[in-house]
Amino acid sequence: MKIAIAQLNPTIGDICGNSNLILEVAKQAQIEGANLLLTPELSLLGYPPRDLLMNPSFIAIATAHLEQLAQALPPELAVIVGTAVPNADAVKLGEKLLFNSAVLLQNGAVQQVFHKRLLPTYDVFDEDRYFEPGQNSNYFTIGELKIGVTICEFDKIGCGFSGEFVGIALFCWQAGSAIGDVAAQCHPFRNTDCLC
Fold first, then answer.
1. Is the pLDDT assigned to residue 92 strictly greater than 80?
2. Which terminal residue of the chain has fewer beta carbons within 10 Å of its beta carbon, N or C?
């Protein structure tokens, strides 16, 4: 399996421009024979989008562009894109309206959504102001390979996977930074990786 990692520098609030950046990188990844493309945390919105997240039209535009991007991407390439996803149960359960999510796009559609579980609330980070933390870890498969997905949890890599998802072979994670650094990484998973 060949993995492409897009070390992009998305512009905060430029959903259209960021979508085009992701599409360009995806086309190049396909040419180079990649099976999976990983983009940074909130790559569609730019990191950190802060109070733009409180504007319902901003989220609606992001959702529409995510669907358009899914249809424009090379169909056989699996692409993980960072975006904000509406929390359908927010009002009913008294939760935040959004999740900070990694979305798996393939074959012209959203295939799976992974929500960030550990929201930073220190220094320049204020994610719990905008996002509801995810409750579950999950993975997807490419062929026979199980790939776990997490967002930003560098020091907690593998947490929640060691028992329930014993067969995971690879971990991919996204990260963003308030100072403009963005990252996406993959590494083999071993049950000893969990540092919780």
1. yes
2. C
Distance from C-alpha of 65 to C-alpha of 189, rounded to nearest angstrom: 32
Cα–Cα distance between 57 and 55 in angstroms, integer? 5
Q: Spell out the residues 6+ positions from residue 136 whose beta carbon is closer than 8 angstroms to its own.
A: 115, 160
What's the pLDDT band for 79 if we cut at 50, 70, 90? very high
Residue 13 has pLDDT above 90, yes or no: yes
Would you tell me how many other CB atoms lie within 10 Å of the CB of residue 127? 19
Catalytic choice (96, 116, 127, 132): 116
- C-alpha distances out from residue 57 to 52, 53, 60, Å: 9, 9, 5
Amino acid at 102: A
194 belongs to the catalytic site: no
